[in-house]
């Protein structure tokens, strides 16, 4: 327990230290540290400017450390600082001149497109659309619909339940995220809790277990990846936290997605839209 701290964002995590320049939403400042090992998986880290100080003093010594402000952080914040501040050959700024036409609003936009989403879970079929339409015609005093789909929730045959949320992939070298708008399963109990509580009460709910219920074709099959639903402030969609596995989507969630990969996904999606 002595090696762990309580973080308001990540909960109980390992403690580590970084230079103060790496705190907050800084990006592209460089990330330097000793090589991690089993005994020190999160070695102290510092930015490129602090590396100049270290190099000028031939390593960290008492004089060099007086010139650097060190801050305590949890391992989760450490990982996010590493992703944001790692320097790359291609950055998000290199995508600033991309010009593309949105399939929803039919307007032309400039810069990277960082949001792609799905209107329904993978398991929602045409027959469910018809069942939901018929149920909506029933009198208002009748039993609550067993099958329905709206912008936030989905139920199928009063047996399978889903919530719509966002997977944020941190972009290496940037404070921005690449966002997948997807659906996750919920137990009946958790689904009822979300539907029953108002926005303010829901913020205090603990994370809820979920299975990813969207197939994202840019990856090997993404359905049934383990994750947790984190309820956000009113009028903000829940965030999905992916369990760490070898799956490429999980790896990008925990270790970051490169700007080259963002461009690849974006251009592929736009080509597909033009061919429809």
The side-by-side strand order for the widest beta sheet comes to 8-12-11-10-9
User: What shape does the CA trace take?
Assistant: globular
- What's the mean pLDDT score? 90
Order of helical and strand elements:
EEEEHHEHEEEHEEEEHHEEEHH
User: How would a textbook summarize the main sheet?
Assistant: 5 strands, mixed
Q: What's the Cα radius of gyration?
A: 22 Å
Q: Which stretches are low in confidence, meaning pLDDT under 50 for 5 or more residues running? A: none
Topology at a glance:
Layout: E1 4-7, E2 11-19, E3 32-33, E4 45-46, H1 48-56, H2 62-66, E5 70-74, H3 75-85, E6 99-101, E7 108-110, E8 115-117, H4 126-136, E9 148-149, E10 153-156, E11 160-170, E12 177-186, H5 188-196, H6 199-202, E13 208-211, E14 226-230, E15 239-242, H7 248-255, H8 259-275
Characteristic terms for this protein:
2 domains; 8 helices; single chain; 276 residues; 5-stranded mixed β-sheet; alpha+beta; globular; 3-stranded antiparallel β-sheet; 26% strand
């Amino acid at each position: 327990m002595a090696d762990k701290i309580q973080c308001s964002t990540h909960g109980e995590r390992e403690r580590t230290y970084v230079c103060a320049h790496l705190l907050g939403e800084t990006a592209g400042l460089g990330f330097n540290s000793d090589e991690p090992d089993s005994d020190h998986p999160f070695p102290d880290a510092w930015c490129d400017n602090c590396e100049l100080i270290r190099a000028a003093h031939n390593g960290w010594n008492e004089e060099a450390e007086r010139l650097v402000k060190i801050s305590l952080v949890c391992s989760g914040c450490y990982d996010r600082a590493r992703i944001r501040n790692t320097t790359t050959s291609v950055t998000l700024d290199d995508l600033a001149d991309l010009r593309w036409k949105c399939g929803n609003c039919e307007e032309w936009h400039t810069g990277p497109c960082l949001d792609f989403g799905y209107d329904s879970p993978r398991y929602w079929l045409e027959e469910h659309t018809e069942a939901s339409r018929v149920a909506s015609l029933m009198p208002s005093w009748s039993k609550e619909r067993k099958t329905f789909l709206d912008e936030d929730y989905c139920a199928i045959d009063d047996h399978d339940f889903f919530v719509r949320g966002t997977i944020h992939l941190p972009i290496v070298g940037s404070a921005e995220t690449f966002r997948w708008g997807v659906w996750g399963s919920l137990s009946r109990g958790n689904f009822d809790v979300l539907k029953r509580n108002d926005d303010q009460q829901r913020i205090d709910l603990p994370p809820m277990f979920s299975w990813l219920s969207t197939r994202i074709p840019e990856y090997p099959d993404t359905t049934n990846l383990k994750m947790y639903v984190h309820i956000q402030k009113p009028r903000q969609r829940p965030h999905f936290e992916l369990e760490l596995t070898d799956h490429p989507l999980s790896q990008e969630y925990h270790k970051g997605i490169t700007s080259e990969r963002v461009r690849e996904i974006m251009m592929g999606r736009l080509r597909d839209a033009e061919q429809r």
